[in-house]
Each structure stands twice: as C-alpha cells, then as structure tokens.
Design goal:
The structure is a homodimer of 216-residue chains.
Chain A: H1 7-22, H2 29-33, H3 41-47, H4 50-70, H5 78-95, H6 97-105, H7 110-132, H8 142-161, H9 173-183, H10 188-202
Helix pairs in contact in A: 1-4, 3-4, 4-5, 4-6, 4-7, 5-6, 5-7, 5-8, 5-9, 5-10, 7-8, 8-9, 9-10
Chain A binds a DNA duplex (30 and 30 nucleotides) through α3.
DNA sequence: CCTCAAAACATAGCAACGTTATGTATTGTG
DNA sequence: CACAATACATAACGTTGCTATGTTTTGAGG
C-alpha cells in the first residue's frame, strides 16, 4: 500500500520558504506553516525535518538557475553565448540573493552536487560550441574552461550579492571572461566585443566598464 | 568613571568560537562559556550578544588572513608574488574553511567591509609593483585588477572549501591568474612560469595542472 | 579612607526554535 | 468490509538567544 503525498503541499512549503527568504525574514518551522492550514508535522512528513526542507530549497534554487540559463538563446556567436550564460548566472544570483546564498551555504551532499553539475554541464556545452566553431584552440578542455568560468561567475556573484562589492563591480565580469576566453585562443578584440554583447543582453546597466571596488 | 573590560576574556571567547567552528560543532552561547568560568552574560558585556560575537569572529578571520598574506615575502618577481598572495589566500581558506565561510556569510556591515578592504589593498600593492616593474601595461588600474584577482580567489575558495569542487580544483588558480595577468600585459610564457612559481610555494600539491571538476 | 555610582557578572527565567511523542483521521488494499 | 500504514494535529520536551534582577567589583571624588 502506497500513500502518495500531495505534491501541491510540497511546492507550497518550498515556495513559502523561498518567499520568506526573499523577504529577508527568518524561515522558521512555525512561520512556514502559519496561515497554510497545515501543521508543523507537514514539514516532517514531506521533508523529514528542516534540513530536508533546506535541501529542497537548494534544489529549487538550482532549478530556477537552470531555467534562467536555458532561456539564453544560442546565437551564431558562441563566445557571446558563453558571456550571456555568465550574465544569466549573475542575473539570477542578484534577483534572489538569499536563495543563491542558501544554494552554496551548507556543505554539499551528493544530491546538491548533482544539481550543481547540471549548471556546469550547461557551461561545458557552451565551451564545446566555441571550440567547435574554431574560436577556441582544440586543446582546451571544455570542462576545465567551464569550471574556470563558473569560478569567476560564482566569485562575482558571491562578492556582489552577499559580499562587500557594490553592484557596479558586476562589470568586472567582462574583462574577467575576456581574459579567460582570449587565453583559450580567441582573438582579443573579437572576444571583447562578443563578451560585451553577451553581457549587455542581461546586465545592460553593468557592462560598460568596471568602477571602484569595495568601500573607500 | 571608566571600567575597562578584560581583553583576555574577549580573546578567549573568540578563540573558543573559532575552535568550536573548526571542530564543526555548533557554536552556541552556552557551549561557548561552558568550562571557562565565565557566565553567559560575558558574551553580552563583551560583544553585546551573539551578533556581536559573530562580527568579532569575522574580524578575527580577516586578521588571520592578513597575517597569512603578510607572510608572503616579496621577491624580485612581482607576478610570482601576486600568485603567491592568491595561494596564501586559498591556503588560509582551506585551513579554516568554516571561519572563511563565516567571514563571507552574513550581510557585510561597514566594519567588515573595512577589514575586507585591507585584504584588497594588499593585492593592490602587489599589482602596483608589477606595473611599476613593467610587467603589466601602464593603463591597468591596480584596483580593478586586484579586485578581479580577488574575485577569482574567492570564487575558487568558496567552491572548493565549502562547495562542490574537489581540492584538486585548486589547480585552476594557475590558468585563471595566468589569463588575467597575461591580459594585463605580461608575457604569456613568462607569466605562466611566474604564476606557477608563486602558486607552488604555498600549494605545492595542487599546482601541477587542473583535473576534473565537480562529481561525475 | 570612606562614599557611591557605574560597570561587570551570576542566576533565573522567558519566548521561540526544531524536534518528538502520542493520538486521531484518512487512505489504499486484500 | 476490515485492516494496516500513511497523513496529520496537538501537545510537550530540550535547547537556543536573550533579558530581568540582584550581587559583587571597580575607580573616581570628597
């Protein structure tokens, strides 16, 4: 005999958690179920406890990120697309900074790592396209370059979304990715233009040029 | 009339917090003072509450980082020194990962940002030396390049120390910094050698070459 | 050398947290 | 229909950060 839990309740709780998170209010067991009609036990039947709920919220974060990345429509310029993926990554992190923080806060378990892997694979495909089109050298390892691009994106997202860097620091993404892709074999001036195009498409107000860093 | 608090008690509590953090045990008000002879009120007289304690722990983290960075002895090769600073940054983050996480976890206030600024200034001076020695172009803004190097370092530290990337991913630091410094005007092969030298000095077992990324 | 107010500190208690125990309703299956 | 496992509500428990209250200690002024 298999009792199936109501998926609507599960989504409801996750959404409420994400909503509470975005409102910068503490996500507590009792605040979650308040007003929903369900009792605190629901969190235990559906998630096994608060840890399980946080894991589900983390998954939700990666799912939303995947949606954002999937919305990046490939063009004839694979380097632009790569920069656009980076911009989409940052755009997502800045849209839901607390959710982004939760995604990378706790120690990663296998399930979380798998979700992160999907993000990485998206970048790997982007690098492969650029390599196939001749923009990058043949000897660049797509996984390596994708990981390095991810490192740059995550560093920027972390330092800007919940860290000491101001929003204008997002513009550092352009020279960072340009340096990386130029080093991978792309023509410097062409690379710069491609990256700027891809970056501007999602972060139009932060792509002109980097300005000051932390405070003063 | 001015009562002066005992600085030793303050340091004791901060050290115990860092120690508890490193032991991956929950840092609670009562676990902090247990066995020290002081009562829970000490945390309030010295720090004004747990928030104040966490802020002090964060400061301690930046102080330890500053010590690590100051231990990097300048050589005749400013690009090597820059890479060595990056390696020291990562070495510190991996030595005390939970402390590093606390440093960048909470929303930054002014005091934290000032501490982070010291870290950045250290990098700025390194870039200025490289520019003065002719390795970098004259038109590179030291603050910009330092911020970008920091972004790379923090991204790597965050993804490796508490994230999904394995320790071997530290090796990505070499190509990342090489790309960045080459883009700043340094000669590619010379840059690579300098970065590898600086990197190896503090992370000898993770500088040969990047391997796989997340899981599989 | 007192006096006395302020600071430092201990004890006890509070509300809120995550969790668990217990009992009841609901569901699917034989 | 009957039975057993799931879903769920209520109530309680231990622990958390914090505060209220009383006591001790400190340092400056008369």
């Amino acid at each position: 005999m298999v009792r199936v839990k109501d998926p609507a309740v599960r989504s409801l709780l996750i959404d409420r958690a994400a909503q509470t998170l975005a409102a910068r209010e503490p996500v507590t067991l009792r605040s979650l179920v308040a007003g929903t009609g369900v009792s605190t036990m629901a969190v235990y039947t559906y998630f096994g406890g608060m840890d399980g709920l946080w894991k589900a919220v983390r998954q939700e974060g990666f799912t939303r990120l995947a949606v954002r990345l999937a919305e990046v429509s490939p063009s004839a310029d694979p380097v632009r697309d790569l920069a656009a993926l980076g911009a989409a990554y940052l755009s997502n992190a800045l849209a839901v900074p607390d959710l982004y923080r939760v995604m990378f806060d706790a120690a990663f378990d296998l399930e979380d790592a798998a979700a992160a892997d999907d993000t990485l694979h998206c970048l790997v495909r982007g690098v492969e396209r650029a390599t196939a089109s001749g923009r990058f050298r043949d000897d660049v390892d797509p996984l390596e370059l994708a990981t390095q691009s991810w490192t740059v994106g995550h560093g920027l997202a972390s330092l800007v979304a919940t860290g000491p860097l101001p929003r204008q620091a997002l513009a550092h993404g352009v020279p960072l990715l340009t340096a990386l892709f130029t080093d991978a074999g792309d023509d410097p001036v062409r690379c710069r233009r491609s990256v700027e195009r891809g970056w501007h498409d999602l972060l139009p107000d932060h792509g002109s040029g980097p300005s000051g860093a932390a405070s003063g």
